[in-house]
Amino acid sequence: MVKRYLSLISLEEALHLMKTSFPAPGRTETIPLLQSLGRVVAAPVHAGYSVPEVNIAAMDGIAVRSRDTAGAREQAPVTLEDAVRVNTGNVIPPGFDAVVMIEETWEQGGRFQVRRPVAPWQYVRPAGEDIRENQLVLPRGHVIRAFDIGALATYGITQVEVRSVRVGIIPTGSELVPLGVRPGPGQVVESNTIMAEVFLTAMGASCTRYSIVPDDPGLIRDTLAQAVESNDLVVISAGSSAGTRDFTATVIGSLGELIFHGIAVKPGKPAMLGRIQGRPVLGLPGYPLAAQTTLRELAGPLLESWGLPPAPRHTVQVKLSQSLTSDLGFDEFVPVSIGRIGEDYWGIPHSRGSAVQMATIKANGYVHITALVEGYEACQELDACLTTDPGSIERTLLLAGSLDPALEELADLARSRGLFLHTSNAGNMGALLALKRGSCHAAPLSLPPLSILPVCPSLVQHLPSAGLVFVHIATIGQGIASREGLTLGDLAGMRYVNTNQDSATSLIFDIVLSSRGVEPVRIDRGLHQIATPQAAAAAIRADLADATLCTSRVAGAAGLHFMPFAWEDYELAIRREMLEDPRLGALVTLINSPDFKQRLAQSGGYDTSQTGRVRNLTLPGSGIDIHREPAT
Amino acid sequence: MVKRYLSLISLEEALHLMKTSFPAPGRTETIPLLQSLGRVVAAPVHAGYSVPEVNIAAMDGIAVRSRDTAGAREQAPVTLEDAVRVNTGNVIPPGFDAVVMIEETWEQGGRFQVRRPVAPWQYVRPAGEDIRENQLVLPRGHVIRAFDIGALATYGITQVEVRSVRVGIIPTGSELVPLGVRPGPGQVVESNTIMAEVFLTAMGASCTRYSIVPDDPGLIRDTLAQAVESNDLVVISAGSSAGTRDFTATVIGSLGELIFHGIAVKPGKPAMLGRIQGRPVLGLPGYPLAAQTTLRELAGPLLESWGLPPAPRHTVQVKLSQSLTSDLGFDEFVPVSIGRIGEDYWGIPHSRGSAVQMATIKANGYVHITALVEGYEACQELDACLTTDPGSIERTLLLAGSLDPALEELADLARSRGLFLHTSNAGNMGALLALKRGSCHAAPLSLPPLSILPVCPSLVQHLPSAGLVFVHIATIGQGIASREGLTLGDLAGMRYVNTNQDSATSLIFDIVLSSRGVEPVRIDRGLHQIATPQAAAAAIRADLADATLCTSRVAGAAGLHFMPFAWEDYELAIRREMLEDPRLGALVTLINSPDFKQRLAQSGGYDTSQTGRVRNLTLPGSGIDIHREPAT
Lengths: 632, 632
What we know:
By secondary structure, chain A is α+β, with helices and mostly antiparallel strands. The first copy, chain A, contains 17 helices and 39 strands.
C-alpha cells in the first residue's frame, strides 16, 4: 500500500499543537441583544441606570415619612399632614421613606391616620434594589442565557459585545456537486462543509462557506489564500479521493507550513493542520465520519481554547454489549446505541465504516477508545458521550437479534408513544447471547414453527437460564431472492449471501441444498459487512451477488424475484422479569394493538393471525416446554 | 390584604390542566436543511437515492469479475482480458464485482495478471452501503443534530418537514416602554416578552411579539382576540401593577374561559391560564422572576407535551450552605450558586426577591423546594438544576463572608484564568460558620488590626478547629458615608444602616458612639434586604437612610461624603487543607500578582503594601496565635 503520511501524530499531540500554535484571535463583534443567546460576553456589561431608578412602592397604601409616625399607638393615633396615596409600582415622592398598607390606615377629615410607628424603608423597593447605575451586570466570559437577556433588557442594554471567530470553509473535489443537484454515478453531494458550517455556527462562530473548488492546485491555492485573509480559522475539506488531499497538503506547504498531516485517530486519520500567515488551516478528511471526528475533536477544542463555549457534553458509563477491538496507539471513536436496562446502561456499537453516516444517525452516543487501550471486552464498562438529550436515553429500548422491516413499523409506532427503539442486527445467536447477559431489553428471533425447536441445538444451548416470554410479532414467509427468479436447483455456482446463517430456517435451507447436491459460492456477511437482508438484496440488485434468503417484502422492495421456501415465526423474546419494566409492558401492548397489525397487513408478506400471542418458555431440567398460557 | 385569587392551584395540577386541556396542534412547516438544527422531524424522511448509487471502488486498483480469478496462484497467474483500472471512489463497471489493489497486480503485455483468487465484493463499496433508495433516514420525532444534517445533505435532502408551534406574545402595561427607550420614573422596560421570545424560540417555537398594549381592557381584548386567531399558544404578560392583571383575567373570561388564576408557586403566584377558541392563553406575572418560573415550569412543559424537544436539564445533588424555609403547599424555586468543595457540591441560595433579576444572572443553578416540603436545613442535600454548562461548575469557587468591590476585581481576573468566583454576602460571622462547616472554598473577612482580635469573642468562638490560612487582600479604610458629610457627633436621631454589624470595626464603632452618647435610628439589614454596603450607600443617596459605615470607594461610587473612621485588614481565610485544591492555589497566586495589586491601586481607597501576605492561624489550646511564617 502506498504510504500516505510521513508519520501519524497522536490526538493528544495534535490538540496540543493546535492550542499552543494559535493564540486566541481576540475578535469581538457587537450584536443586538435579541440575537445574543449562547454568545460569550467580550467586554464587561454595566448598567446604564439603576433599577428601580427611584424608590417605588411595593404595596398599595400611603407614602409617609417614617419619623412622622413615631409614638403612634392604638390609643394615640398619629394624623399625617401630607401622606400621599400610592399604588404598587408608583414613585415614592422625595422625602418620604416608607409605605403603610392601605388596610392599616384610617381616614380622618380627609387626612390619613396610623396607629403604629413605621420603620424607615417599609414596603419600599429602594432605588437600585435590583441593580445600581454603573454596576457590573455581566463579566467578561459570561455565556448569555435566555433569562439573562430579560434582565439585560430591563437594564436598558440593547446590544452586547461578544467574542467572535470567523471561519472560512472550503470544499474541494472534482467529484462533488452542491446540495440541490442530484449526483451522477461516482459523484457525491458536498456535505462535509455543510456539516462544518452547522456545527461551528452552533458553537458561536461566523462561517463563510466557499463554492466547491475542483481538484486543481492553482484554484485551491487561490481560494485558500483568499480565505486566510479574512478568517481566523480556515477549514478545508478534501474530496474523497486521495489525490485531492495531497494537493491540499502541498498547497498549504507552498503558502505557509504544514504542521501535521495524519493523526492516529479512527475515523479521522487523514486530518491535517497548517499555518498560513499565522492562521490555522485545518484539513478535513473526505469520509464523512472522519470529518465529524475532526470537527468534534480538533476544531471544537480550538474554538473552546479561543473562549467560545464548549459544546454540551453528557457522559454516562455504559457496559458494552460486545467486545470492541482497537489498535494500540490509535484513539478510536465508535457510535453506540445506549439504553438503560435495570440499573445499568448498555451500549451497542454500530458499524465503524467511515463512510456510513447512517451509523451516527441511528446512534444516540459514542465511545472513545483511547490510544493506550487495545479495546474492551463485552460487559466491560467505559464512558459514553451522549448525542441526544439524556431524557431520551431513559426512554430507549435496545433490541438485538434478527431484524425484519416489521420492527421499523413497530419503532415508528413506539415513537409516537415516546419510546425509542434501537435495533442491532445480531442474528438469532447474538440475540440469545444478549438475552443471557442482559445486554438487550428484548430480542427478535426468526424461528421455524416451534415444534422444530428441539432439532436446533445451537439455539437451545444458548437459552438463558431465566424464563423467557415469547411475543409473536408475525409469521413471515422466507424465500430465495434473485434478479432472475432462481429456484433451489439454480443456485449451484451462484454467489449466495448468508445474511442470517444462524437462523434455523437458514440451517434447514443449507440441509436441503446439500441434500440436492447444490453448492453456491457463499459470501459470508461477517467478511463483507452485509449487515441485513435489505443490504443483501441491494447487493444482488447491484450485481455483486446472485441470491439470498429473505422475506418477500425485502425482495420486493429491491425489485427482485422471490421464490417462497418456508414460513417462520418472528418472535420477540423477553426475559420474564423484564416485563416488570413499564417500557416493555408498553411495547408488548403495542405489538398487540390493532394499529400494529393493520400496518403489517398493509405492507404485505405478513401473516398477523397470531400477532400479539404471548407464551412462556421454561426450561424445567433438560427439556424445553412452551406453555401456551399467557405470560404473567 | 385584598384577596387577589379565588384559590391557588398546585403546580402539579396546573401542569396537568395544561397538558390535558390542549392536545398538540399538529402544525408542521417545511424548512431548508441548513436551518433545521434542533428541530423535530414531523414526517419520516426517506432517501431519494442510494448512497453510493452504484458500486464504487474502495481502493486504487483494478476492477475484476471475481469468478475470472478462480484458481489463480503464485505459480499459475491468471491474465485478465478486460480488467479496468479504477481509483478510490470510481464507479465499478457493470458485471465487475471486486477490486484488486494495484500493488497485487502485474502487468503483462498490456494486460493485468493476478496471483490469488479474489472473493466477490473485495474492496467494493456496494451500492446502498450507506443508505438505500427509499430507506428511512429519520423517523418522526427525531431531533436533528449537526452531524445528521451532513448525512441528510449527502442523501440529497434539501428541506425537512418539522414540528412547528406558533406563539403570540403580548406585553401589557401602561408603565412599560419598549427596549431602546430610556424609562422615566415609575416606568420599566418591557422585558418579559423579550425573555419569553428568546426562551420559546430556543425551544423551536415561531414567536410573534406584539406591541405594548396599555392597561385598557378594550385594547387588550382586541389584541388577544387577534393573537388567538393566528397562534397555537398565546402568552400575555401582565404589567407589574395589580390592576393590569385583573384586566387580563377579565378579558380572557369574556373571550373564552379562565381555567386557573393563581398557582401555589414562588415566584410565579399570579400566573393564569385560559382557553379561547380552544387555544391556550397563558398569563405571565409581571415580576421578572415570576415570569421566568412560569415560562420554564408551564410554557416549556406544554411545548414539550406538543412534541418540541425538552430544554436540556442537568442536575446535581447539592448540600445547602444555609437553611431554606418554604411554605408547605407551595412549590418554590430559589436561584443558587453551585460549586464543588472536595467531593461534595454545595449550593449557596441567592435573594428570593421576585424583582431581583441579578440573582438569576449571578446564579449558576436553582433548587426546587416541592410543595410537600417545608424547607431544608443547612447541609441537607437536594437536587439542583444547572443553568450553566456542567464544566463551569467544576471551575467555580464559592466565597462567603464580608464583600468588598476588591473581590469584583479579583473575580474579573480569575475569569480570564478560567475560574468563576461566586460571592455570597454572609458577614464575618457567616464567613466563619461557612468555613467551619466547609460550605465555602474561602471566606473574605473584614478584621480590625489583628492585635484587637482577642477583644472580639463572637469571632473567636466560631473559628473552625482546623487551622486557617489568612491571605491579605488589602488594607481598607472604613468611614461614615452620608449625603451631607456627617461626623460621629452628628448621628443622633439619624437613620443609620448596619450593613455589617458583626464586623469588629462595626462593634468598635458602636462602642465609640455609645461612649459619646450618640444614638442613631438603626436600620437592620436583615429586615430590609440591604445586602451590601453598596446597597446601603444607594439607599442613602435615595434618601431612605442617612448614614452607614463603608469604604471610601463605596461612598465615592454613590456620590456620598466620606469621613474616615478606621483601617481594616481585608483577609481571605482558607482552611489549610483546602490549599491542596489547585483552584485555590491559583486564586492565592492571583491575589499575589502584580495585576491584582495594580487594579486595586487604580481604583483607590486600598493600601496594597501587604497584599498577598500569607499567615497561618492556629488555635493552640485556648489562646489564638498568629504566626507570621508563610503557609505550607
